[in-house]
Amino acid sequence: MATQSHDAATAFAINDTTANPAPLGLLGFGMTTVLLNLHNAGMFPLDAMILSMGIFYGGLGQIIVGIMEWKKNNTFGATAFTSYGLFWLSLVALIMLPKTGYIQAPGDSAMTAYLVMWGIFTGALFIGTFKMNKALQVVFGSLVVLFFLLAGGDFTGNQAIKTIAGYEGIFCGFSAIYAGLAQVLNEVYGRTVAPLGLVRDPG
User: Fold this and answer.
1) What pLDDT score does 11 carry?
2) Which of 36, 90, 97 is nearest to 63 (CA)?
3) Nearest to 176 by CA among 131, 114, 122
4) How far apart are CA 133 and CA 137, in angstroms?
5) What does the radius of gyration of the chain's CA atoms come to, in whole angstroms?
6) Is residue 203 pLDDT above 60, yes or no?
7) Tell me, what's the pLDDT at 69?
8) Cα distance between residue 171 and residue 176, in whole Å
9) pLDDT at 15
10) Of 93, 103, 104, 179, which one is least surrounded by beta carbons within 10 A?
11) Could you tell me the CA-to-CA distances from 164 to 6, 29, 141 in Å, in that order?
12) Contacts (Cβ under 8 Å, ≥6 apart) of 164
């Protein structure tokens, strides 16, 4: 009898019925990225609208998604969403803290180092998307390019590079919006409405 009870206990498993949090994270990242890079492309100044999106939707929103991905045992999602949520909060802090007069604003060399580090980090995650889908490959691949373009703009002081980065960032943001909404619509309709380009496992 004890053996049967032990076998029954070891066969017990929890079925995860929670929703997929990734679309929320992709939309928080994508919409905030589009708005910031509309500014980088010279379409409007850096104002409270962009900073508010950076704090709440791009920042706190992605951190919440990262925690949800951790609960779903998704190491990639937890690492990516939490990190980029903290990226947005740190970017807002870099802009706002010097305005208090207590902290010196970062120079071009410091911003170059900041953006290069994020580019390297994103490059490593981009490698991970080779096992996922083509939509995420576009998101992370274009984000790698964006970080290094922004770093190049700060390093050289060339405004044209920053403008190009703005337009490339708009593309990156919209690719994330597509990847997020595609997952929502495909789930709602129970079929592929917007393809993600699933990667076939050669094995």
Assistant:
1) 60
2) 90
3) 122
4) 6
5) 20
6) no
7) 98
8) 9
9) 77
10) 104
11) 63, 20, 16
12) 149
